[in-house]
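input
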Amino acid sequence: MYIQSETQIEVRYYETDQMGIVHHSNYIRYFECGRHQFLLDVGLPIMELEKHGIMMPVVSVSARYHTPARMGDILRVVSRVEKEPMARIEVLTDIYNQNGDLVCDGMVVLGFIHSDTRRPTRIPAELLEVFRKADRERQAVLQEIQ
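output
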């Protein structure tokens, strides 16, 4: 499985620190923005997941910082899933500046829980099928290109 999505974010003044660079904590927010767009692009907005009684709490976050981003930079946030989600989903994210330099990369692991009991669960079959469909569509596009 390989599904990818992109979005852009302009760095705002309040996201920077006294050195004029993006404070490291904001990259976690950028990961969230990328993940939100990813879910929209796949066809599973967060509200749709919640209608199915599913929530996705963050289990872990990791980030590596490469090049500072500054106020006014336009960041390209690339989010992808490379493994089929089961009881959890791993969303890998790369963030590039307008020059194409890798600014930050990382991964967010989210679990699936029932919204009423808050107990862990596997991804429901109908939601898993949405991910599989997105992957099949990507593969079909690649086939047409070749």
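quick obs: The chain has one domain: 3-145.
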